[in-house]
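not sure who needs this but someone in the group chat was asking about NAD(P)H-dependent flavin oxidoreductase YrpB (Nitropropane dioxygenase family) from Nocardioides marinus so here u go. i didnt clean anything up, its just raw.
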Amino acid sequence: MRTPICDEFGIEYPILAFTPSEHVAAAVSRAGGLGVLGCVRFNDTEELDRTLTWMDENTDGKPYGVDVVMPMKIPTEGTSTDLSAYIPEEHKKFVDETLLKLGVPPLQEGEGREGVLGWLHSMARSHVDIALQHRPVFIANALGSPPVDVIEQCHAGGLKVGALAGAPKHALSHVANGVDIIIAQGYEAGGHTGEIASMVLTPDIVDAVGPDVPVLGAGGIGSGRQVAASLALGAQGVWTGSIWLGTEEYRNLSANHSAWETAFTRATSADTVRTRVYTGKPARLLKTKWTEAWAEEGAPQPLPMPLQNLLVAEAHNRIVASNDPDVISMPVGQIVGRMNEVRPVADVMASLVSEFEEAVAALNKVNG
């Protein structure tokens, strides 16, 4: 399974794992992959600093990465309070009425009311500044190319920069901006994703950017067979995400994990939907009563990012606190249909590697 990406980052396997959990990210790095910590949940730069210090100390000296959410074009934005004035009252009313209809109770006194500052461009820049004070080797941007000055800042700090792409033209634009590694994010993926399936997208992007630019395949990857398929399509490695939501280490992220585990272990690959209700940009989520409510006749159209984030922030906190698997709002890819048990990260990594080896051996037999 060794590819040039392994030598680039000093890792054993070309498996990169995006996750909002530092416990998952550290476990992936310790198991020979590259754990990539999603920073968007951090509204407090001091908390991110503490978390990255923890990563520095709990990865056995092995490399890790970080992921930020930063649009190439710098938006005009103020604080979340300033922006909330642009949210229509009809949208606020719809959210309140929908939560009432779905039986989602208000937050109790003392329960978290985290906002969505991590989705703001200014906060994403501060995430980069904090990351450069630690020892990640890679920084990825979930919304394509970060601004060129940020790319240059990361290069000056010794970090490689990656960006997600949903079409060959996006990949070419990223390379022109100075991005080092392209993540070909197929339609099957959880979270923000484009309209082209990975079977078509990966080779299209590999051919577009040429042999000197490493490409990671992403979208629908949760087994060693799928890792082998991605490498066969020309990728140098894989970018995985959803599969790590079903790990024991992910439980450390929230006390209310039982509803999520119930929801994903019973889901099939058909139980997701690509919608703008989560952030304002197309993202694949688990299909639940919450997503279905937004698709009903008379429901308002989702607002653009970051207004949609601000609109649904407290709703999502209430949904998490309610611990109801029928309502939960969670980005996840179509691979959810294979996530039917909770396992330690090390077991998932071991399975990816052994299944890859079995797939390659089977293909070699076909070759005669």
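also Residues 345-367 form the longest helix (23 residues). if thats useful
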